[in-house]
Design goal:
Strand content: 25-35%
Distance between the termini: 49 Å
Radius of gyration: 31 Å
Number of strands: 15
Structural class: mainly beta
Largest sheet: 5 strands, antiparallel
Order of helices and strands: EEEEEEEEEEEEEHEEHHH
Helix content: 10-25%
Shape: elongated
Length: 297
C-alpha cells in the first residue's frame, strides 16, 4: 500500500517543529508546524536516502553547507527559497515567521512521497541559543492509524411497547446478552458469541427468531451494571411521534445520543447518557415478576 504521508520531527533547546509531507488530490504538500518556540522559515530542502551525486544548494545565508545525518554528509535533491532572512518591517506578522502552534503549508514539486526520506529547514530569527538553524530530519514516522472508538455494550436491551405512567416496562421484548442457566421465563438472548452492541441487539430483534415489530416500539431501554454492582437502567431512547419508521431511523437516533456525549466510553458513556426524567426499573422487582406479567415476543 503506498504511503499517503510522512512525518519528520526536529528539536533543539528552545525550538521544536514537525513537518508532515502528504499527498492530496494528486498534489504534494508539506505542513510545517512549530511545536515549541518560533522561527522564520527561509528555505526548505529535501531528498531521498541515496546520497550520491551532486547536491542542490541555495546561495548565501540560505545554504545548508555542512549538514550531516548520522555522521554522513547530506546530498539534497531539491532546495526551495521561501523568504529572505530577517523579519524586516513586518516583524512577527511576516508570512514565514511561525510561532508555537502555527502551521505553514508549502507545495512540493515531486511525483511521489518516495522522493522524500530526509527533510531540511534553513531558518533564522529562531528561539534557540544560536538564533538560526540548519535543521535536518530523517527516519520519517508513519502516522498512526486513528483508533475506532469503543462501541458501548449492554447486558440487556428492552424494546418497549407498553410502559406504566412512571416509565416502568410493562409490555415488549427483553433481549439478554447471554442466556442464563436456568432461564425459567425463556427470555431471548443474543446468539452465542455475539458482541452485545446495540446494532446486534437491533438486528436480532428484527430477525426471524424474534420477529420484532419496530413500528410498535415506544422506547428502547438499555441496561448495565451500576456503581453498586446491581443491574440498572442506563438510558433510553424514546420514539418520535409516529414511531420509528425503520431500523436506520432508530440507529440514527442512537448515534445522535452517542455523539452528544463527546469522547466518553464504557461506563462513563453510559452515565452521561442516563436520563433523569425516567425512573429506573427495580432489578429485584423485575426478577420477581412472572412471565405472564410481561409480553415477551
Amino acid at each position: 500500500m503506498p504511503e499517503t504521508s510522512k512525518i519528520f520531527t526536529y528539536a533543539v533547546d528552545g525550538l521544536a517543529y514537525t513537518v508532515t509531507v502528504y499527498e492530496e488530490n494528486g498534489e504534494f504538500f508539506a505542513d510545517i508546524t512549530v511545536d515549541e518556540g518560533a522561527m522564520d522559515v527561509n528555505a526548505i530542502y529535501f531528498g531521498d536516502d541515496d546520497f550520491s551525486g551532486s547536491s542542490e544548494s541555495l546561495s548565501g545565508p540560505l545554504n545548508m553547507n555542512g549538514t550531516r545525518l548520522d555522521g554522513e554528509k547530506v546530498q539534497w535533491d531539491e532546495a526551495t527559497e521561501l523568504s529572505d532572512p530577517g523579519l524586516g518591517p513586518e516583524g512577527e506578522d511576516k508570512e514565514t515567521y511561525l510561532q508555537t502552534g502555527d502551521t505553514m503549508t508549502v507545495s512540493l514539486d515531486i511525483e511521489s512521497l518516495d522522493e522524500i526520506d530526509i527533510f531540511g529547514i534553513r531558518a533564522t530569527s529562531t528561539t534557540n541559543d544560536a538564533g538560526s538553524i540548519k535543521g535536518v530530519s530523517g527516519d520519517p514516522e508513519e502516522p498512526e492509524e486513528p483508533e475506532d472508538p469503543e462501541e458501548p455494550t449492554y447486558e440487556k436491551v428492552f424494546f418497549g411497547e407498553v410502559f406504566s405512567d412512571s416509565g416502568d416496562p410493562l409490555g415488549g421484548t427483553f433481549i439478554l446478552d447471554e442466556e442464563p442457566d436456568p432461564n425459567p421465563y425463556s427470555i431471548p438472548a443474543l446468539p452465542e458469541g455475539t458482541e452485545p452492541t446495540f446494532d446486534n441487539y437491533l438486528s436480532y430483534f428484527l430477525s426471524e427468531d424474534i420477529g420484532g415489530d419496530l413500528s410498535a416500539v415506544q422506547s428502547v431501554v438499555f441496561y448495565g451494571t451500576g456503581e453498586d454492582g446491581a443491574q440498572e437502567e442506563l438510558h433510553r431512547i424514546d420514539a418520535p411521534e409516529g414511531g420509528f419508521q425503520s431500523a436506520d431511523d432508530l440507529l440514527a437516533a442512537y448515534d445522535d445520543a452517542l455523539e452528544a456525549t463527546g469522547d466518553l466510553a464504557g461506563q462513563d458513556l453510559m452515565a452521561a447518557l442516563s436520563l433523569e426524567d425516567h425512573a429506573e426499573a427495580d432489578p429485584e422487582a423485575e426478577e420477581d415478576l412472572g412471565a405472564d406479567e410481561f409480553e415477551l415476543l
